[in-house]
Design goal:
Layout lengths: L1 E3 L2 E3 L12 H5 L4 E2 L1 H9 L13 E7 L2 H6 L5 H11 L5 E7 L7 E6 L2 H6 L14 H5 L5 E5 L1 H13 L1 H6 E7 L7 H10 L7 E5 L8 E6 L4 E5 H8 L20 E5 L3 H4 L7 E5 L2 H12 L3 E5 L2 H7 L2 H18 L6 E2 L8 H18 L3 H17 L14
Parallel strand pairs: 3-15, 5-7, 7-8, 8-12
Antiparallel strand pairs: 1-2, 4-13, 4-14, 5-6, 9-10, 10-11, 12-13
Helix pairs in contact: 14-15, 15-16
Amino acid sequence: MVRRKGRYVARLDKGRCNRCGLCHEACPGHGVDFEGLSAALFGDIPEDVAVGRYLGCYVGHATDRIVRYNSASGGIVSALLVFALQEGLIDGALVTRMCRDDPLTPEPFIARTREEILSAAGSKYCPVATNTVLAEIVDSEDRIAVVGLPCHIQGLRKAEQYVPKLARQIRYRISLACSLNFSFLGTVRFLENLGIAPESVEAFQYRGRGWPGSVLTRLKDGTKRTVPYPECYRQLGPYSLRRCTLCSDMLGELSDLTCGDAWIPQIMRTDKAGSSFAISRTPAAEELLESAASTGAVELSELELEDLLASQGHALFKKRKLKARMRLFKLAGQSVPVYRQKLLSPLRADYLSTMKLYAIRYILAGNHLLLRRLCQLVHRRKRRSVKIGTRPVEVVAQP
């Protein structure tokens, strides 16, 4: 993998390639057969368009106050991984931390201790090459939990079809809810807007310190800078990865378990420590949640599906606006991924918001200084006239 224009690009090693085609078959970038995979994995095709197959919906958090405070939203994933490790359910977990020697670069790795799991707590709003660690799983006999974004889980499920040993080694596939991810250029621009040179950064953390949390930058001279997470998310918005805008899966429909911020009004009003929602999709995930709750590792309560969808409405919007985005790409002569799943018909307004989305990305993320400043001025005036809550949203027309 090489970095180019703020993202990872796959590079073929001709010396090792045997032309088996597995890398292409396992890649979710060009398409995902959601219906075929759901039928093979779960025994049926889910009826719920937005959520996919599910056995239970919950809201909760880690009972360890430090773990909860230092995580993105309640620390439930970290708590579950530590519990599974201590109970002997897994031998390790594929998670991601920021590199010590290169603090703006994510490092996927197999965590085998409680301390290593907790070192990976918190979201990473940049590309992560989780696939680079899969060979280590195949070469071992360890039972592993994999934590990734929906696209990571899609690729993992596709790879498991061709590498049965990989499927046997992975005990849990935990997806983090994701509306969009952002290029490395977004983080660099965020730091530059703070007057911070990227090379002066010693440590960087996107989330933590309560909920919704803050971004922490520690410089090599010892000084620290913190910025509220919603403000960072807003600045990252124009740097969304183009392929992410063509994704249909916000809630990791092919995972065993999906977790994410509980953007639920009654919780948001009082909860400053953080809470997560959890969607179990397989008996193994349901059993993990029940066991962790019964021993006090996590605190859980049932969550009505209606409340979950109200807090994660973007999942449904993705299914509706996706066709509009794809049609515009095709008109521009661009290729789009092929999904075998039910999508909703877009509204006329979806085409307009789609064009606005890509125009904003082009202006704010490119080297168009005059246009960028004009657009930023318009946004600042809008923020002054409209009271904005703490919930971050995608810049222009959330999918």
